[in-house]
Each structure stands twice: as C-alpha cells, then as structure tokens.
Amino acid sequence: MGTRIPSHQLSSGLYVSGRPEQLKERQPTMASRAVPYTGGDIKKSGELGKMFAIPVLDSKSDAPPTPKPSRPSSSSQHNSGPVRSGPNSGPLGKHSGSGPIPKKSSGPMPLQPTGLITSGPIGSGPLGSSGGVGRRSGNLEQSSSTGKVTYGSSVTSLDDEVKVGFRVSKAVVWVFLVVVAMALLVGVFLVVAVKKAVILVVVAAVIVPVVVLALWNCALGRRGLLGFVKRYPDAELRGAIDGQYVKVTGVVTCGSIPLESSYQRVPRCVYVSTELYEYKGWGGKSANAKHRCFSWGSRHSEKYVSDFYISDFQSGLRALVKAGYGAKVAPFVEPATAVDVTKENRELSPNFLHWLADRNLSSDDRVMRLKEGYIKEGSTVSVMGVVRRHDNVLMIVPSPEPVSTGCQWARCLLPMYVEGLILVGDENQNADVVPV
C-alpha cells in the first residue's frame, strides 16, 4: 500500500506537492538614525563628550545643557571602561610619558578646538598658535628667546684655526737648539781664550741665517701656501680616477642645507664666518687667554661649512664636495670688516647690540671689530681634495693625510703641511656671482 504524498493549493488555485510553508516570525528591526555632523565640536559628539563630563547638546530639545555630575570614586571605577584614571589606565590614560593621569573631579579635561584629545594644555604642542618659533627646513634651528641660529650635525663647525705648519719632530728642534747653544758657548770661550773676535763672527755667520730662515717661513708660511694652491694645475673631473688628489675650480651651489651669515644675514651660502676681535692696550681687558698687549685678539668666532656642489670649468661636470658632518676643512676666505668700533666712534648700531645680546657678550667701552666672510651660491672657488666615485656619484672628500707644499727654493720657503679639504674663495667676496 503506497503512501500518500501530501499536497496543498496555492493562492492562485494551483495544486503543488508538499506541505504548506510555515511563516517564520520576523525579527524586529531596530530603528537607526543618521549621526549628525559635529564639525569638530566636542559638545555635539555624544558619548565622547559625556565620558569627559562635558555638556552635550541634545538636538531634540532646545533646553540648555546640564553638566553631567562627576562619577563617584569607587572600586568599580578601575574597571569601568577604556578611559580610566587609575594605575591600570589604557592608552588614553597616559600623560605624555610621565605616568597615569591622576583622578580629577574639579573640571573637564582640556581638549583641542578640533576635538583631538591631547596630553597637555592647548597651544603646548606643535599645532598650538601660542608657542615659540618652530623648526626650519633641514638641520637649521633658531631659539625662541634669541635670534642666534644653530645647526645640526650635518654642518661642520670650525672652531679651531687652520692647521698649517712644518712637519718637524720635536726631537729635531731640540737637537738644533742644543747645537746652537753649544756653538755659542764654544765661540764665547774661544774669544775669551784666544782673544780673537773672528771666531765669534764665524759662529754668528752660521747661526743667524738659520734663525732668519725660520722666522721668514713663520711669517710668510700662509702666503706661500696660497701661492702653492694658485699654481697647482686644475684637473678635469671627466678623466679623474678614484683616489686621485685634484684641484677643481668652478661655480658652487648649495647642498641640502644652505647657510646664512649671522650678522649681515647673507642667504644661501656654502661657508660663513663671523669673528669679533678686541684690541688690548696697556693693562686692558684680554679677549682670550693668549691675548697679548697692543694686539688684536679673537673674542668670539663662528665658522660653518656644509656639503655643496661645484661645477668644473674644465669639463662642466658637477661634483659633491663633502665638507659637512665634521669633515676637516681648511678654508682660506678673507673676511671683510662689517663693524668697526674705535675710541672716537663708540656709538653702536641696534643690529650690533642685538647681535651681542644674542651671544651674551658685553658691549662696554671696548675697541672692537667685527669681521664677516662667506662664500655665496654662484661664487667661483677652488677646492683641493681626493676624488671618490660611488654609485655614479662623483665626490670630492678631504685627504686622509696632510698635504705638503714642497720646497719653494725661489721664495726660500720650506715644505708646509695642511690638513683637510682646502677651500679657497675669491679675494673680493662682494664680486658679482653667477646666477644658478
């Protein structure tokens, strides 16, 4: 006996097999409303404002908002939500790395006008309008209290003078002095014993030329070095090999960090120097520990140089001169007098007084002279260094060993040595520059 298949009739009158479908209860849907645009106003942001006890505006009522009473301090407050004021607070419970925020019930938390929650009063961060002077591009910074510009590690600060001298060991110097002293003693003894002055004349004829030669080299050593640099032939960068010591003459352009002179504010320089000198008379004040009477002494010095580019006149190629990041550089740039304070003219300009105040230098009755030198972008300079090629980048770096000028017999100059990258600028720094 077969089983009967159940069937049912649809609303259209058609019979179909199977049992009629049971209608399921439809789940009630929750009504949702569009979130209003707050425009950055924390009072319109709903629950976020309630968490910080800030009066919230209700869009359905025109009544003035009533502040929410502060939450009671209980044991359940430590685990009540993500914003806590206890020791187990989350990311919003920190206060700029100085520990958790202590519990407060006297007022709301200060917020930025944009609605951004920060850890500090308004205006204390980089977006605050009441802060001081912000950072400049590169590694250039300026203090908010003074106008003195400071640079980062990418700019070389040249505190010491250029190290130029003779490479003679101290042992040789002491042996020479001992020989001279013994020769004088022997000459004096023979003059007394033999009673002939010709012996003393012979000794003096040997010693005096040596002393004069040493004094001549000490006085004209720097000029001899500049003459050596000018006579050194210019090299062509196109044919220079890696590790070759070359001299390149061309137009310079600034690197990533252009410099600015501190007093005259000359922009876009590759080298700047500002030096304050004072004259010391009999019993006057000394500018430094080595200041002698009746001479000029350096009281304050600022010298900076950074990486720059030089375009070779011979081949037209451009090379990167690595003078920054603490490199050894020997600049030969003649500075010009910017301020001259004499006994007759003691009236100081406001700019000079402001420059002295920024560096905590006194402006009392002193004979002062401010000299400033610089190499502007577009100037013609000569650079002597070692060629380096790295990943198709042509660079000129300081020589690892001191460079010798060799004997200059025509000028009676002994070999002199200089350390670092040699940088020689034009004698007239105010000359017309090439636009770049």
UniProtKB/TrEMBL annotation:
GO terms for biological process: proteolysis. Residues 122-135 have a biased composition (Gly residues). It comes from the Eukaryota. GO terms for molecular function: peptidase activity. Residues 1-153 are annotated as: Disordered. Residues 1-14, 139-153 have a biased composition (Polar residues). The chain crosses the membrane at residues 171-192, 198-220. Residues 71-82, 93-109 have a biased composition (Low complexity). The keyword Transmembrane applies. InterPro entries: At1g16860-like. Keywords: Hydrolase, Membrane, Protease, Transmembrane, Transmembrane helix. The keyword Transmembrane helix applies. This is Ubiquitin-specific protease family C19 protein. It comes from Quillaja saponaria.
